[in-house]
Amino acid sequence: MILWKRTFLLGFLSWLLPFLISFLIFPVKRWNAPLFATVMTLVVVLTAEVLLGFYFRGRTVTSSEALLVGTLWFLFDVVLDYPLFSHGPMRMTGLNYYSEIGLDYLIFPLFAFGAARLACTQNSSQRQGRARA
């Protein structure tokens, strides 16, 4: 069962945290754009890991719920982010936005699904180990 309030609160943070960090390190982009892109990808991965930990704290992890929550966060991020970059001072085209920024947000559903599958596999192995003992 999806925790809607938690999903939306953490979804907002999934956009806000990388956005704020990008402002802090934006000067790096002027002298080394690939480094900036790599750091921002790592920021999104770390954000996904931390926020998914908060989302599933004290709850059973399921792959389907993790994928749905990650997909909602992806959509949330693009809806908040794209207008700022397409109509703001950067005036990016849709192609530029998605190739430079937007596709990074796919980390949320992909990481969520992979981490949930790993957690489910480990839980299943632990249960089987206890059953044998």
Would you give an account of this structure?
The structure is a single chain. This protein has one domain. The chain has 5 helices and no strands. The protein has 133 residues and is mainly α. Helix content is 82%, strand content 0%. α1 packs antiparallel against α2 and α3 (63-87) runs antiparallel to α5 (107-132).
Please compute the radius of gyration using only Cα atoms. Answer: 17 Å
Structural class: mainly alpha
The end-to-end span amounts to: 32 Å
Would you identify the regions where 5 or more consecutive residues have pLDDT less than 50?
none
**Strand segment count:** 0
Indicate the proportion of strand residues. under 5%
The biggest beta sheet, please?
Answer: none
Shape category:
elongated
Q: Taking all residues together, what is the mean pLDDT?
A: 90
Count of DSSP H/I helices: 5
Question: How would you spell out the order of helices and strands?
Answer: HHHHH
Q: Please indicate the count of domains.
A: 1
Binned, the helix content reads over 70%
| Oligomer kind | single chain
Give a brief description.
By secondary structure, the protein is an all-alpha fold. It is 82% helix and 0% strand.
Summary keywords:
133 residues
Topology:
Layout: H1 4-31, H2 33-55, H3 63-87, H4 94-100, H5 107-132
Helix pairs in contact: 1-2, 1-3, 2-5, 3-5
